[in-house]
Design a protein that fits this description.
The protein is built from 13 helices and 13 strands. It is of the alpha/beta class.
Length: 357
């Protein structure tokens, strides 16, 4: 895997091209050279940890920022708007090395899961024409298998098998040849209450998975402004309709539950196609092909970057920000940050944007 990565010719178009895709401001300023990013990734994280370790006991620890790697490729999609698998794998490889400060993709993936783990990939398939693309999900599964996970130890799941099928996934519930893929289909655990959430969680997460990877799609939402990684877990609970009451507190409350909080190791945003209005089931006129993938270990930081991409697109469409909060940040993201679930401000996030080819 790493040999294949090293053979690829990554051409970076720089900050000018980044501004074209991401607009002006913070996102565009984070466009960097792929070579310089790869060379500094391990050194930066090691240095931050070393500084923390050497600090006197009475000194306040150095705050480590959340890393988000955002990767775009103008040639990502074919004529039918299907992502190219090899190019998605290249994006994942870059993102994993950056986020985990690793010198190879294998080293990074091994920090997420071991061959003994059962890894659940929570996708979002509620809208059949804007769902987590199977190519992205199977690329993640491929990299997990590359570091030793048996196919049957990987479960791609959502609320129902029907929604997965409608989104183009192949249902697999047995055997050892392919990653498993099926819905919760009514199999939930016991009801419980945590903060403003009261409901049941999928037994795929409770009883089977030891590791959770959140794989949302980039969408807007009439009540929560955006629906990305955090709100993706409305497809993990049995009562998403009831969760829309006090939605801006219930979204982070679900992510703060121990099964979700402790098992989440990674969040990967499918931004190959997205919507800037009318979500979560948008009309075609509100969708666009962003041709991107983002990687983070902090789902709040991932959502913050996705929120900013949506707002930049809305600006280009002569629309206002998706939220009335300062800088257009969705309320549930601010609440999640206050609850300690992740970072939701530019100053707390180290973002790199690379354009690959």
């Amino acid at each position: 895997m790493s040999e294949g990565l090293n053979r690829r010719d990554f051409l970076v178009r720089g900050a000018v091209a980044g501004a074209g895709i991401l607009g002006a401001g913070w996102l565009a300023s984070c466009a960097r050279s792929a070579v310089s990013t790869a060379a500094s990734a391990s050194q930066t994280l090691t240095g931050a940890l070393a500084d923390t370790a050497q600090a006197p006991v009475a000194q306040e620890a150095v705050a480590v920022k959340s890393r988000v790697g955002l990767y775009t490729n103008e040639g990502l999609m074919d004529a039918d708007t299907v992502p190219n698998l090899e190019k998605v794998l290249a994006m994942l490889d870059r993102g994993m090395m950056y986020v985990f400060g690793a010198d190879s993709p294998e080293t990074a993936w091994k920090q997420v899961a071991s061959p003994q783990d059962v890894v659940a990939l929570k996708v979002n398939c509620i809208c059949r024409h804007l769902s987590t693309n199977p190519v992205v999900s199977y690329a993640i599964a491929q990299r997990l298998m590359d570091v030793g996970l048996p196919p049957q130890n990987i479960i791609i799941f959502d609320r129902t098998s029907r929604e997965l099928t409608n989104a183009g996934y192949e249902l697999v519930k047995s055997g050892t040849a392919k990653p498993y893929c099926y819905g919760t289909d009514g199999d939930y655990g016991e009801e419980f209450t945590y903060e403003t959430f009261s409901g049941k969680l999928s037994n795929i997460l409770l009883q089977k998975a030891t590791v959770l990877i959140n794989v949302p799609v980039l969408k807007t939402h009439g009540a929560s402004q955006v629906t990305i990684a955090l709100k993706n877990h409305f497809g993990t609970v049995h009562n998403p309709g009831a969760c829309h009451r006090n939605i801006d507190m219930t979204i982070p409350s679900i992510s703060a539950t121990e099964p979700i909080k402790t098992k989440t190791r990674l969040a990967i945003l499918d931004a190959t196609r997205a919507c800037f209005a009318g979500g979560p089931s948008p009309p075609p006129a509100s969708m666009w092909t962003f041709k991107g993938v983002a990687v983070a270990s902090d789902p709040v930081a991932l959502d913050f970057v996705g929120n900013r991409i949506v707002n930049n697109k809305r600006t280009s469409e002569n629309m206002g920000p998706i939220s009335k909060n300062p800088e257009g940040v969705a309320t549930h993201l601010l609440n999640a940050a206050r609850m300690g679930l992740g970072k939701a401000s530019e100053g707390e996030i180290d973002l790199v944007h690379e354009q690959l080819t």
